[in-house]
């Protein structure tokens, strides 16, 4: 029976959400609902942007269960992305010719457009607060389930709203469990700046480079710095760091996992 759920898991990765729902329904009708089938169903609803159905599934679960909190995080993140895309679309439409908008039956007054964007922005702020609250809750209940990316998103939300003390509390709480987290150390340094919400991109790059340079393990340090330099188009420095990583590995230096590298920006 589990092979059917394995198949549904593959379909989920391929974004075949309706097929996932069909496979899960067949499994539950033929056998029984279990944690895995219910999780697959909820993730399929989230992926398909069927948020009402996802919320109904989540309402059946124990709210303080770590898996439930993780699913709620995925749901809120999907809502955030949907609203951000809608706001961006509205902003693009502002530059469209009024005649074209009229032909499409979409012409609205300037005040109506502004009100719509304001409402969506308010929704976005609310979802961001929900996301930060869920990360905080999960950190308290099951810290091993909290990803660095979730901490980064929550911190950015707090910083954008000027809630620096709440951001510091989250970072310090995460560092209690993961003292070597480069993401948490990065945000700790950002939050120590005089105006955390005004830190320039150039200064953020300096902080990131400093944090990565302080990684104790030589292989992990070199690989992460290499990725940082490559991302910032400093290819000679990147090549030098990757050579250092290879040299340390061949010399049998400190144990390190070259795969433990961030390919995206910390910001």
TrEMBL record:
<dbReference type="InterPro" id="IPR011990">
    <property type="entry name" value="TPR-like_helical_dom_sf"/>
</dbReference>
<feature type="region of interest" description="Disordered">
    <location>
        <begin position="246"/>
        <end position="267"/>
    </location>
</feature>
<protein>
    <recommendedName>
        <fullName>Outer membrane lipoprotein BamD-like domain-containing protein</fullName>
    </recommendedName>
</protein>
């Amino acid at each position: 029976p589990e092979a059917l759920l394995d198949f549904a898991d593959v379909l989920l990765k391929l974004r075949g959400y309706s097929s996932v729902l069909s496979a899960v329904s067949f499994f539950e009708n033929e056998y029984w609902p279990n944690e895995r089938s219910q999780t697959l169903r909820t993730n399929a609803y989230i992926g398909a942007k069927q948020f009402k159905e996802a919320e109904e599934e989540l309402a059946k679960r124990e709210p303080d269960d770590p898996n439930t909190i993780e699913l709620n995080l995925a749901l809120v993140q999907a809502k955030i992305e949907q609203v951000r895309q809608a706001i961006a679309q509205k902003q693009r439409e502002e530059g469209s010719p009024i005649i074209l908008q009229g032909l499409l039956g979409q012409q609205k007054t300037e005040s109506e457009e502004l009100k719509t964007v304001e409402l969506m922005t308010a929704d976005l702020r609310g979802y961001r607060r929900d996301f930060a609250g869920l990360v905080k809750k999960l950190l308290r209940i099951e810290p091993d389930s909290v990803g660095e990316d979730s901490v980064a998103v929550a911190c950015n939300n707090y910083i954008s709203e000027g809630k620096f003390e709440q951001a510091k509390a989250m970072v310090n709480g995460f560092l209690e469990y993961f003292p070597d987290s480069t993401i948490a150390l990065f945000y700790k340094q950002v939050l120590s700046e005089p105006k955390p919400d005004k830190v320039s991109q150039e200064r953020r790059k300096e902080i990131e480079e400093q944090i990565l340079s302080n990684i104790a393990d030589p292989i992990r340090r070199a690989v992460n710095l290499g990725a940082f330099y490559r991302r910032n188009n400093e290819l000679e420095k990147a090549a030098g760091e990757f050579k250092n990583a290879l040299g340390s590995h061949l010399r049998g230096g400190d144990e390190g996992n070259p795969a433990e590298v961030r390919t995206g920006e910390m910001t």
